[in-house]
């Protein structure tokens, strides 16, 4: 089932980039950064393959990917800034998120927002959703955009470069990244379990 979904996404990605070129890369990476899990591990390696065939330029491919990431992240950021906090303040108790947790997130992004955004952009899964909590915490917009662009450019450049080196075998890269995605997912699940345990422990006290 998962493999079929990935195959359909890959077909959509290949068709979009083939039709729209660099604009397709911008569009797809914007979707991926707007909290919609469209795999950049397919988007950028395929773009790298087109560099291999001589149809695209590596640096422009990475630039298009990074610009798309910034555009999509702005959408997710403002979704968090305008609707995320009121929603969580009203319904957060049902998902074990308190006002104290929001205050903690605010302080975290004020102190460590730059490195959080930068590193988050280099991690599968995390990179797709990191803009939303940054918006809820109302991280400084200029710093948010700068670190989003820098981290995303590195991510896009590396994936495109690997796709270029793999040539027509660019799609084999997806196997390894899906395994890494699973590892990140396990880590995030462990974090959620720890958070729930800590929350109930606090309630008992």
Overview of the structural elements:
It is built from 9 helices and no strands. It is an all-alpha fold and 205 residues long. It has one domain (2-204). The chain starts with a helix and ends with a helix.
Features of the shown structure:
mainly alpha; 9 helices; 82% helix
Topology readout:
Layout (H helix, E strand, L loop, with lengths): L1 H19 L1 H12 L6 H13 L5 H34 L7 H22 L5 H4 L1 H6 L4 H26 L6 H32 L1
Mind telling me the C-alpha Rg?
18 Å
Order of helices and strands: HHHHHHHHH
Q: Quick one: overall form?
A: elongated
Number of discrete helical segments:
9
- The CA-CA distance between the termini, in Å, is 44 Å
Summarize it.
With 205 residues, the protein is mainly α. The chain has one domain (2-204).
């Amino acid at each position: 089932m998962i493999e079929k979904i990935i195959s359909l996404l890959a077909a959509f990605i290949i068709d979009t980039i083939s039709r729209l070129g660099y604009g397709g890369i911008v569009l797809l990476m914007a979707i991926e950064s707007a909290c919609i899990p469209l795999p950049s591990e397919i988007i950028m390696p395929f773009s790298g393959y087109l560099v291999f065939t001589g149809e695209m330029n590596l640096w422009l491919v990475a630039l298009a990917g990074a610009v798309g990431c910034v555009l999509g992240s702005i959408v997710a950021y403002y979704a968090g800034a305008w609707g995320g906090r009121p929603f969580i303040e009203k319904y957060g108790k049902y998902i074990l998120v308190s006002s104290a947790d929001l205050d903690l997130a605010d302080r975290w992004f004020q102190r460590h927002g730059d490195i959080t955004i930068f590193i988050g952009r280099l991690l599968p899964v995390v990179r797709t959703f990191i803009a939303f909590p940054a918006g809820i915490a109302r991280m400084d917009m200029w710093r948010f955009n700068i670190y989003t662009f820098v981290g995303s450019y590195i991510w896009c450049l590396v994936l495109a470069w690997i796709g270029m080196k793999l040539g027509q075998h660019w799609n084999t890269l997806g196997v390894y990244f899906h395994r890494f995605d699973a590892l990140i997912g396990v880590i995030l699940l462990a974090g959620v379990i720890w958070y729930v345990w800590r929350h109930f422990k606090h309630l008992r006290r």
